């Protein structure tokens, strides 16, 4: 029996993908917080396994060596959008995974199929455990990790806008080298064989080049609400 009063919103699964610096993390976190959903930063998971490889002296240029140890580190992600956490073997790595060294090496590690299989399994189990639903952001969420997501969004922005945003974060970095580095990482992520960075056929594309962050958040919240309302 449905008396209406006890009816609650169904859990909703939102996949947000796109190239580096398009605003995936900032947008996903804010949308999840506003709508009472969990939040998962899948890039942080690939950064965490890369940090472990570097720390343990694994040769990043040797995919066989990476594959052989891909199952070793225990990676745990906290999915509260107000305080996302990431640990490797119990160590908080939220700072160390953001170093330039990890950023430069993460695409090589994330291209290894055994790494992707391991991390994809983690992502699917976290999404399945999210009682109210979840916003999951990355590169292959709509295409591979959660192909049945209720809503898929693909964020884009010009390389110039993305470089300017990143340079604003990384004090002292110059715009040109920041732009070149993000173009290089996007090219590597888009051209790998296993689940490359790609827009799902049924994803809504949002170009954020000329939008402020609050405008992007509002746009995505509206899309989720419309989806929930069955529009
Ligand atoms: N629409 C926007 N306008 C201006 N700045 C923005 C906008 N969206 C995000 N930013 C800023 O750009 C920077 C990068 O955003 P964010 O980390 O969310 O991008 P991302 O797509 O998750 O990047 P990456 O994939 O490299 O982790 C942040 O400093 C963020 O505050
Ligand atoms: N679904 C994903 C998410 C990320 N990656 C790889 O991780 C790198 C870091 O991602 P950030 O979002 O933290 O910048 C990214 O460059 C990819 O190599 C991925 O493969 N799949």
UniProtKB/TrEMBL annotation:
Biological process according to GO: nucleobase-containing small molecule interconversion; pyrimidine nucleotide metabolic process
Binding site for ATP: 18-26
Catalytic reactions of this protein: dCMP + ATP = dCDP + ADP; CMP + ATP = CDP + ADP
Main location: cytoplasm
EC number: 2.7.4.25
Enzyme class name: transferase
Domain Cytidylate kinase: 14-225
Stated family: Belongs to the cytidylate kinase family. Type 1 subfamily.
Keywords: ATP-binding, Cytoplasm, Kinase, Nucleotide-binding, Transferase
InterPro entries found in the cross-reference section: Cytidylate_kin, Cytidylate_kinase_dom, P-loop_NTPase
SUPFAM superfamilies: P-loop containing nucleoside triphosphate hydrolases
MF (Gene Ontology): ATP binding; dCMP kinase activity
UniProt protein name: Cytidylate kinase
UniProt KW GTP-binding keyword: no
Localization: Cytoplasm
Gene Ontology terms: cellular component: cytosol
